[in-house]
Amino acid sequence: MISEKLQRAREFEDQYMHFLDEQRPRFHVTGGIGWINDPNGFSVYKGEYHLFFQYHPYSTHWGPMHWGHVKTRDFIRWERLPVALAPDSDMDRDGCFSGSAIELPDGRHLLMYTGVCKVRRADGAVEEIQNQCIAVGDGVNYEKYEKNPVLDVSDLPEGGSELDFRDPKLWREDGCYWSVMSNLSPDGSADILLYRSQDALKWEFVKKIESCHNEYGRMWECPEFFPLDGKQVLLTCPMEMAPIGLEFHSGFGTLCLIGTYDHKKQEFTRESVQAIDYGLDFYATQTVETTDGRVVMVAWMQNWATSTSQSRGEQLFGSLTLPRELSIRDGRLIQNPVRELDNYHGRRTSYENVLVESEANLAGISGRVLDMTLSIRPADENGYRAFRLRLAKDGEHVAVIRYKPGRNTLRIDRTRSGGRFDIVHVRDFLVRPQDGALKLRVVMDRYSVELFVNDGEQAATFRLYSPESAQSISFEAEGGAVLLDVEKFELDV
Ligand code: FRU
Q1: Hey, how many other C-beta atoms are within 10 angstroms of the C-beta on 323?
Q2: Do 148 and 134 touch, CB atoms closer than 8 A?
Q3: Is the Cβ atom of 276 under 6 angstroms away from ligand 1?
Q4: Which atom of ligand 1 is nearest to 65's Cα?
Q5: Cα separations (Å) of 163 from 118, 132, 219?
Q6: What is the DSSP string of 455-492?
Q7: pLDDT tens-place string over residues 11-47
């Protein structure tokens, strides 16, 4: 049965989304209209990849959360499907928060998400309770389970808070369903809780598999827990991070823990800690295991701290990142654009061994929808002080990526990229060059830059606010010269 609320959201989207097609990026997921945040329910269903997202179609601001819905066969071209969930039941009347999805053996598609409802306490205070709910469907329409919630305060370990208990991530292993989710812990930070079920409907608490202990932020959002290249990975997004060197900045962060997992004892042993993305606009990851065995990750290409940067009259806010293939190399998380992007490579322009000193353009190297790889190395033994790649440039605008080999730092700076709000525009992070040589891959899709350093060893994502007509790209070396190789593809999507 389709509720009035869901029907209304579907009709609203249907009525207006076509007017916004001119504003959309070419191959990144956006909502039909209005606001989106986290990706949800990234899953294989009947051979296609389904992806949902936190959605408020009625304005460009966060509001009562629905689940928007798209699907794809190749992660580049997406087909929009009707809104999947609306906050229309007792258990989720104030929001269908983030969650995940899985295909059931009987051919149905199951969604597990956080239902939010406000309750008035005896003392008059209004609090928001979070619990876990299920909806089952056919890839288009979903029916909420009559026994929702399937997990509530009674399923929490001692001291856990029902006010922050959210973002279940499902998987199937050894004939059981498993789910991890995050919970505000008694020490004011976060625990990652593990639950088990035989049928994905009736769940039992197993144990805490990780805890923040106030070390990396406080509450952790959107946990992801999966095997990768012989290791086990826990991704999560901490709130209220304190900065740690140039690895973690303050505010809403991203955290990747790599370790091992004892499947019998359900014990995760942490071995290394790193940020997931070093840019400005990246939060709330979701992964899927593809039909050919890759782990592909997507995230919200925004951040809560920067999400107020909206000009008057905007009708579309928020998009998801380009899906990225994950792997582990030398104990670090490696991210690269999905290989399907190569199928959309159009006109190629390339140069080898270009000597770069003062700022220069190269014929054919410009644009805002492209996939470009640069290799830079010192031109001689004297080295160089800095290298600058300028993107999305015109007389007024520019986004700068600056590398300083002496300090091994990369800086992204979009101060002059059209933003008119007092949000963070600059980020520095450490990279690992080899003998002053660095490889950068830049994927641009009109209003975004996704940067991959040294074959995916690090990624940095940021949005641009400049007009698409700012297309120029230039190269500059300071305090010496570099030799540059460039290969640029236009993207025909
Ligand atoms: C992360 C998050 C999730 C929550 C959702 C609400 O960005 O805060 O923890 O489920 O967004 O929209």
Answers
A1: 29
A2: yes
A3: no
A4: 12
A5: 10, 12, 11
A6: TTTEEEEEE--S-TT--EEEEEEESS-EEEEEEEEEE-
A7: 999 999 999 999 999 999 999 999 999 999 999 999 9
Q: Bridge partners of 67?
A: 54, 85
Q: What is the pLDDT of residues 196-224, one digit of tens each?
A: 999 999 999 999 999 999 999 999 999 99
Domains for the chain: give ranges and CATH numbers.
4-339 (2.115.10.20), 341-491 (2.60.120.560)
Place of tokens 């936190």: 54
Query: Can you read off the two tokens belonging to residue 127?
Result: 């609090």
CA distances from 145 to 8, 140, 476 (A): 21, 16, 59
Q: CA–CA separation, 349 vs 344, rounded Å? A: 15
How far is ligand 1, taken at its centre, from the CA of residue 138, in Å?
A: 25
Substitution site in 40, 52, 62, 97 for ligand 1 pocket (most atoms within 8 Å of beta carbon): 97
Q: Which residues face 463 on adjacent strands?
A: 448
Instruction: Report whether residue 302 contacts ligand 1, using a CB cutoff of 6 Å.
Output: no
CB of 307 closer than 6 angstroms to any ligand 1 atom? no
Give tens-digit pLDDT for 63-96: 999 999 999 999 999 999 999 999 999 999 999 9
Ligand 1 centre to CA of 264 (Å) is: 31
Choose which residue among 65, 98, 117, 181 to substitute to test ligand 1 binding: the one with the highest number of ligand atoms within 8 A of its C-beta.
Answer: 98
Among this protein's residues, is 380 annotated catalytic? Answer: no
180 Cα–ligand 1 center, Å: 15
* Order of strands across the sheet that contains 448-453: 345-356, 482-491, 369-378, 438-445, 448-453, 458-463
Peptide bond before residue 149 is cis, with ω within 30 degrees of 0: yes
